[in-house]
Amino acid sequence: MADPISSKGIDSRARMIDAAILLMRHGGLSAAGINEIVKASGAPKGSVYHFFPQGKTQLAREALAEYSQRLLAVFEQGLRGGRTPGGKVRSVFRLFAQRLEDGEFRQSCAAGAVCLDLGPDLETVREVIATAFSAWIELLAGGIGFEDRRRARSFAGLMLTAIEGAGILGRAEHSSRSFIEAGQWLGELADREASRGAAG
Known about the structure:
Layout: H1 4-27, H2 34-41, H3 45-51, H4 56-80, H5 85-102, H6 110-115, H7 123-144, H8 149-173, H9 177-199
Helix pairs in contact: 1-2, 1-4, 4-5, 4-7, 5-8, 5-9, 7-8, 8-9
């Protein structure tokens, strides 16, 4: 049987991570202050420095690392939604369009939003985000279905660029149209690339 004190502590830590992710998705790192995280999570304020002795920067790093893993699952789900390279691309963008709608057009990518707050004192946070972006690109490159791995990674980078940009535009327009249109165009490009590879 689990120690109830330990279990409560783990739960508090998880709630703080979840709260930090949600706050960063809404307003970047500047929206995820310690007081805001404590309020949103309902965790005791003293527990912040128990679990994250380096303070907000450590909490941000760990929350972004967790967010990165969650997004890998989202990308995997999207890739499973199509049979052809173009179908996979469109499925990924439809899934992100749905996520934007589910968040009532008020939530962006936590990693992308935090990038806007990065300064020279947040190099370790930047490294976590760069690692997340690289992992997402590698997953997309491996799942699209191109024969040329180099071109697959380049195309996956374009997909991620479009996803990040569509999230910003979608919030401004209060619409998921940017995701759907980007998915349609990139889906066409993906099918052309796949045909090119097969013909070669």
